[in-house]
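Design job #97: recover the sequence.
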């Protein structure tokens, strides 16, 4: 019978901990759902709780957000969108996870009842397709995000651009 020596204990604990709390695609998908729920609620603080301090947002940010950390800039964007579209909702159509990456195709909708991009509210409903890719670190925090949104369709629906 083999016994564990005290010198082997830290390695055994590390192995057990990493096995019990290993990030899986299923866990990352559940975290993604929580991120989307926080965004839909306009809760920037809850959203930020799921981000790594080293979070890297790969989408271009408005000029006035240059110099902010990507976490702070993302929180500011969420607050601005929620103020402009307080009833916004993300309807997940498809979510796929592999390794540390989750990809989401969704339809975002809302009614423009607040100022948006310096324009007064239009009170018009909008829908737009979006694709998000989120990469998670080993602790389960979002470390990177890429997003592609049909902003042209949204601007057309708001009457800010013509077809």
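Job complete. Output follows.
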């Amino acid at each position: 019978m083999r016994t564990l020596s005290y010198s082997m204990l830290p390695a055994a604990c590390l192995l057990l901990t990493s096995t019990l709390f290993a990030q899986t695609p299923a866990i990352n998908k559940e975290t993604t759902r929580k991120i989307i729920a926080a965004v839909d609620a306009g809760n920037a603080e809850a959203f930020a709780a799921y981000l790594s301090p080293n979070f890297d947002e790969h989408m271009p940010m408005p000029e006035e957000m240059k110099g902010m950390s990507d976490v702070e800039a993302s929180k500011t964007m969420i607050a601005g969108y929620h103020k402009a579209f307080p009833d916004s909702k993300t309807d997940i159509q498809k979510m796929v996870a592999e390794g540390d990456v989750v990809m989401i195709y969704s339809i975002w909708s809302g009614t423009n009842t607040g100022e948006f991009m310096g324009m007064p509210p239009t009170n018009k409903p909008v829908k737009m397709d979006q694709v998000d890719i989120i990469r998670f670190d080993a602790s389960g925090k979002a470390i990177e995000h890429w997003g592609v949104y049909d902003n042209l369709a949204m601007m057309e629906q708001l009457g800010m651009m013509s077809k």
